[in-house]
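Continued from yesterday's entry.
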Amino acid sequence: MTESANIKTDSPRAWLLAARPKTLSGAAVPVMIGVALAFVDSRHGGGSFSWVAAVLCLLFAFIMQIDANFINDYFDYTAGADDAATRLGPRRACAQGWVKLDSMKQAIVLTTVAACVVGLPLVWFGGLEMILIGLLCVVFCFLYTTHLSYLGFGDLLVVVFFGIVPVCITYYVQLHTCTLQVVVASIACGLVIDGLLLINNFRDRDVDRAVGKMTLVVRMGSETSLWTYFGVGVVACVLGLVFWQNGHLLAFLLPMAYLVLHVFTFLKIRHINRGKALNSCLGETARNIFVYGVAVVAGLLLS
């Protein structure tokens, strides 16, 4: 029997697959870095630190990631960009019939509301501006899949909403300020996580081109995209010099372990070049992102 036949429609297993729990590391890493930066600075007289606010930031990031996965699953399928017969990546719930379209629409509403409910208490820690930040996260969560990813803006949004926004806002709700070190660290984090989108779009470049999804990879071409994947990791580590300049040498040195893994994954992508075999590189990239996050956090705390 096929995997699809073993999964009952709208079953807990179907929803678990639709939520894509493996993607949660990408949501966790920027919050981890923001929390570590705030914790270290608070211990050096920068202000008080709240673990409640830290947990709320992490929960908001997790729920928004699941929400984004549901939205992506639903709208890519209805737009014809997620055909089960031509898909190269991991199977999607709507395309496989694991989750009904009406059920997915209801889940999108519920997860969006849940994110807002979890994020609302952050107003107590960060002020009314947290409402605007939350609304922007929700709006661009929808715009990414429905419009902006088709126009090649996906990578920019990853840097902003998986780097700058979560790292800086996580820091801001703790200490009510944002330093140059935090901003640079947030950009580096966004670049690292963008590697996941780049390899995903590199694998899907032929299918995306056929359906008119003009991702950055489709626009740049294969060779330039490969070197862009390589470059985001290198630039992120170079930006890590900001940690050294602020007395956190280990936060600069430890992520070199990530860079080594990143180079090996780049060489593997270059060798495979196309097809479903690139899914192993997608998994390696997710692993590398987590290694980067742990390395930066460990470096900050140990320094």
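--- second protein ---
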Amino acid sequence: MEYSIGEFSKLTNLGIHTLRYYEHEGLIMPERNASNRRCYSDKDLTWIEFIKRLKDTGMPIKEIKHYAQLRADGDPTLSERMEMLVQHRQTLNEQIALLQEHKAKLDEKIEFYKKEIERVNDGST
């Protein structure tokens, strides 16, 4: 299926200016129709969702651009692309571990307050 930039913007929840910026930066390369208008495909939709996921998981735009260039370069870059994703996953795992540690400390403090509130309330009756 083919989508105009407006339709694609709605499908991806990305503004038209963002899509044009992504194109300018080489992240996406939509086809052009006979009128030279951008035509996005389902393949572009899958790719933009992956870009959004990389962005949402904290991959810097510079790295996403590098990944996009490798992708455009084709199969000879498969190993390098995989290594980038392995490294990104490692970074995510480290962030998750740190967040879990922070959560555990917050849980401890919440338990402390629950017990203190119980103690204060039991003592006031």
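The longest strand covers residues 38-41. The CA atoms of residues 55 and 101 lie 24 Å apart. Will compare against the first tomorrow.
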